[in-house]
Amino acid sequence: MNLLTIETTCDETAAAIVTDRLEVLASVVASQDDLHRRFGGVVPEIASRAHVERILPVIDEAIRKAGITLNDLGAVAVAHTPGLAGSLLIGLAAAKTLAAALGIPLVAVNHLQGHIYACRLADGEEVFPCVGLIISGGHTSLYRCRTPLEFELLGSTTDDAAGEAFDKVASMLGLPYPGGPAIQEAAQGGNPRAYAFPRAFLNDERLDFSFSGLKTAVRYTVAGPGKTDFAAIQLSPQQTADLAASFQEAVVDCLVTKAFQALKQTRLNVLCVGGGVAANARLRQRLQEEAARQNVRLHVAPLTLCTDNAVMGAIAVERLKAGLVEPLDLDVSPGVVRR
User: Fold this and answer.
1) Total Cβ atoms within 10 A of residue 292
2) Residue 271's closest CA among 155, 127, 159, 80?
3) Which pTM was predicted?
4) What is the dihedral sign for C-alpha 183, 187, 116, 199?
5) Taking the C-alpha atoms of 166, 168, 169 and 171 in order, what is their torsion angle to the nearest 10 degrees?
6) What CATH number is associated with residue 314?
């Protein structure tokens, strides 16, 4: 069976065609980075309007790339939680329309579960039960993942998500949006021990994260208390590199430490990592080193499946197997479902 999956949770408009054997026939992603760059972050109204313009061409291109027609679809799946309300509604409206017109099932996808399922999809082997670490611009959370569809929240950020902190610190350093790739590039020539930035909760048993204090520490180092005009501050290339490297190392320390604390507390031996920040090269290196040291099975989503995409909507296959389909009055749920 061919399944159309749709992803519009934030600022990527994506569609993919996958089979019930988890074969990916096509994947199309339309990024909005250029639209949001001048603002240094995602503007929800701009994101929604861009989805309206792009959703049908993206779906059409996915269908054509897969070499099928709409009549060859057996179901349509759509991410309905969590995300920006306006963005989610665009994808859901398209999915409902196709399901009704074609007389095929509508399947709801939890975007966060999809990020972890990307590890299962890419590596082609069973990864559940596992600890799931989801790191993106909007989420930094740890879950006990008993099955692809059964998640228990273990801990999350109490303020900024890791990806959000990357974007904000990049702006302070005069680096472009999105901040993650920009900071990673700048950090390559920097000393990660040049600045002693804080690591919140590092020695605490609670499995939560906090990046607001780290962000503030960078702000004070760059501009000093009370100053907000970062454009007037002239940093040397080496200062920028050292600040980027030190900030990045602090974030990575927190993410790696808490992930392996979660493994210890749950007595699980499999760690799956997904989300846009999972593309960070330093993080991937540290995770691999620690996994080898502790003899943990590590699965990190490939770079193509870290940022938002519709391929991870293949988790809908698991819902179909369980007989879970949705009525056409399905609504979006912008907030994180904490279960």
Assistant:
1) 10
2) 127
3) 0.93
4) negative
5) 120
6) 3.30.420.40
What is the residue range of 102's domain? 2-115+307-321
**pLDDT tens digit string along 228-277?**
666 667 899 999 999 999 999 999 999 999 999 999 999 999 999 999 99
Q: Where are the beta strands (DSSP E) in 20-67?
A: 24-31
CA torsion sign for 18, 23, 25, 31 is positive
Per-residue pLDDT tens over the stretch 161-201: 999 999 999 999 999 999 999 999 999 999 999 999 999 99
Is 22 inside any structural domain?
yes
Whether residue 178 is contained in a domain is answered as yes
Q: Is 269 exposed, middle or buried (0-12, 13-18, 19+ CB in 10 A)?
A: middle
Domain-located, residue 75? yes
Assess if residue 92 is contained within a domain: yes
* E strands, the chain, in order: 2-7, 12-19, 24-31, 73-81, 106-110, 130-135, 140-147, 150-156, 270-274, 297-300
Integer Cα distance of 85 and 89 in angstroms:
6
